[in-house]
Amino acid sequence: MTDTPLAIIGAGLAGLTAARTAHEAGIRSLVLEASDRIGGRIDSIRGSDGQIVGDLGPTWVWPPFQPGVPRWLERLGLGTFEQYDSGEAVLDGFAERPVCQPLPGQYGMARIAAGPGSLVDAMAAELPDDAIQTGHAVNAVRHHDDGRLRIETAGREPLIAERVLIAAPLRIVAERIQLPADIGAPLQDMLRAMPTWMAAQAKAVIRYPRPFWRESGLSGRIASRLGPLFEAHDHTSLDGEAALFGFVATPPAQRGAETLRTAILDQLTRCLGPQAAAPTDVVIRDWADAPWICADADRHGPPEHPSVGPEALRTGHLDGRLWFCAAETAEQSPGLIEGALLAGEAAARAAVQGLEGDA
């Protein structure tokens, strides 16, 4: 068996923030990730030079209203820039043909200069080389004979930990990970009830040689009743890599890749003109197909934004040995980038305090 003071289940932003927080406090942790990559709902398109040129998961932060974001960005040496919103938007399906007109924007909406993937890279960069193990799906957390917790995964020996932080989506935990019976049915019900933000969403990034829509006085923003994109925005990078991105309205069961790609280009051509028909790349990320992100309840239920959940999601369990810290557990910005940062940080601090008290 392998022993560790702190085990973290899930290498998304919350789990990596927890690992980074513990590492800075001098506590060794081991992060177990079920998939073959780190980042969770943050996924990036990278150019030939490795630089991030598109976001397939979350894109925006709101620094004036999310103090946790600038605090962490400053620590990690990362910056932001405003979401491009100059010019007219296109209303699609509100009249016989698309209509161009101004739409109100969101004050404070910003993008991370190097993409949200740079958050993932920066969090992981300071961890020891063996701190993160991908391809290890946890199937059970049990009591060990000596009072610690035993983590069981397929294909590896059990891991024994003094403290365990679960940073996986709560509904995935409820569906896939067996927890000790004394965790209690009410808490299990809370896990099942908490929607995973954007879990069943598909997002498309469409790259172009240049942001031609700006030349026509358009913002790149589209609001549509026809689809397949119900919403689109300028996604050009700070370095000038031109792109649009959009959220797909097509239900998960009807998202055939080639059919969807064709329909997206038809829509963009209808709204933005013939130059939209000739992208350099179209990348569609269907999160409903991500087995460790999208739970059955997310895939088959209505899309919901998580509200602030019960306090039990932010407190220790099993005598303070087990904590949940997915982004949806946060009491501020649940489900968003800030929520992941705050939840991972808070749970790690609690675990560190407990470990220091045991010493």
Automatic annotation (TrEMBL):
Domain Amine oxidase: 111-350
Pfam families hit by this protein: Amino_oxidase, NAD_binding_8
InterPro entries with a match to the protein in the record: Amino_oxidase, FAD/NAD-bd_sf, Flavin_MAO
Family listed: Belongs to the flavin monoamine oxidase family.
Name recorded for this polypeptide: FAD-dependent oxidoreductase
Species in which this protein is naturally found: Spiribacter insolitus
Source organism phylogeny: Bacteria, Pseudomonadati, Pseudomonadota, Gammaproteobacteria, Chromatiales
